[in-house]
Write a structure and sequence with these properties.
With 385 residues, the protein is of the alpha/beta class. It contains eleven helices and 14 strands.
């Protein structure tokens, strides 16, 4: 009993001594990221993110993208979902460092990678993809990363919070653009149309293909390549200063049926006779009442053989959209767009019940579906997805 009393007295004294020493040493106090939290609670979330993301990095390195998806990858992506659905995730230093590190690694990998067979496909932020074959490199909806995000506070209401530490640096933008031959922008929304990437491509003399209305009130708008949006029209686009041409179809998609912007759904054919489709934010809304776009979506496969479909993960009737293109491989994108409030940051696991999607039906089908996250790549061989 005597020892117990002595310990009870000793412990508070040590805590006070440690606190006093820490304060006297002037240890820096990190700023609070989430203003709703105490200093200690907020600091804990940073430490948790740093620890868990180290495990995510290790797991994803040991289990790169493959079909079918191993459980280890699914768990790692689920951990990312949890961390990225912290409202203030874009401003947490470990999450910023994780994103920056993965894009830096991607940039170095691109600069060192030559493709002899098939295509190497990299995943960037949001719905950004890069496809490299032996002869060409295609960029789709390339984006630096969110510079601000929305907060819906029950007491304070809606607000916008800046996140200047999240987007990648300009030198990485220029290095990535230098590795590509063309940039395709699906539509004008800021999580798809990034003026820094567009300017980098134009400064390097490379075409930026976009629908009308992208970068309004900017000199960039006059420098874009705006092609006819016709489902039955096979077009040609010079690249590499005219040394090569791409064949492509620009389908007349849209982001919303009522008042939404035009959204290019492009199907691009490489000199190797492979084809890659990217659908931006294509959505048929309201659905099933609105069927106009399905008139061409349902028929794509009847005219063209599609290798890879890069589709936004939340489009309504994603299974029907996939069947319309009938690809050999499906790459869902647009997960965890951090500029959105947390309910609208679609997780890697899909949240299909809430969003009223048939994503689980697609996963259960015979179509190979490959989920990638920031900075990852996959070597696609036509004979084997």
């Amino acid at each position: 009993m005597r020892i117990r009393y002595r310990l009870a007295f000793f412990a508070p004294a040590m805590i006070l001594l440690c606190a006093t020493t820490w304060a006297e040493e002037g240890a820096p106090v990190p700023p609070v990221v989430d203003p709703r939290l105490t200093q200690d609670d907020d600091a804990y979330l940073n430490r948790q993110a740093q620890s868990l993301l180290a495990t995510v990095d290790e797991t994803l390195a040991a289990h790169p993208p493959v079909v079918p998806e191993p459980l280890e990858r699914r768990l790692a992506l689920a951990v990312m979902d949890g961390l990225l659905h912290d409202v203030y995730a874009p401003n947490r230093p470990p999450i910023q460092a994780f994103y920056q590190r993965r894009i830096e690694q991607l940039t170095g990998a691109m600069e060192a990678t030559q493709v002899q067979e098939g295509a190497r496909i990299w995943k960037l932020y949001n719905h950004g993809f890069i496809v490299r074959t032996a002869t060409v490199t295609l960029g789709f909806d390339l984006h630096r990363g969110v510079a601000g995000f929305r907060v819906n506070d029950p007491k304070e209401g809606k607000s916008s919070v800046p996140s200047p530490g999240f987007p990648i640096r300009q030198d990485f933008v220029e290095r990535i653009a230098r590795q590509c031959d063309v940039l395709f922008i699906s539509h004008l929304h800021r999580d798809h149309a990034d003026d820094a990437f567009a300017q980098a491509f134009i400064d390097q003399g490379k075409p930026v293909v976009a629908p009308p209305g992208v970068f309004p009130n900017s000199d960039l708008a006059t420098k874009l390549t705006v092609l006819p949006r016709e489902a039955g029209l096979l077009q040609r686009l010079p690249i590499q200063n005219g040394a090569r041409e791409l064949e492509l179809v620009v389908y007349p998609g849209q982001q919303y049926q009522s008042g939404g912007p035009p959204n290019n759904v492009v199907l691009v054919f490489t000199p190797e006779k492979m084809s890659f489709a990217h659908n931006g934010d294509q959505i048929n809304d309201p659905y099933p009442e609105y069927q106009e776009d399905f008139k061409w979506i349902d028929q794509v496969h009847e005219k063209y053989d599609v290798d890879v479909l890069m589709t936004n993960c939340w489009t309504n009737d994603i299974f029907r959209f996939t069947r319309g293109f009938d690809p050999k491989l499906v790459l869902p994108g647009h997960q965890n767009e951090l500029g959105h409030p947390i309910w609208d940051r679609v997780p890697y696991w899909g949240d299909a019940e809430f969003l009223k999607l048939n994503y689980p039906e697609l996963l259960a089908s015979d179509y190979p579906v490959l989920v990638m996250t920031w900075g990852e790549s996959y070597h696609y061989i036509p004979a084997m997805p």
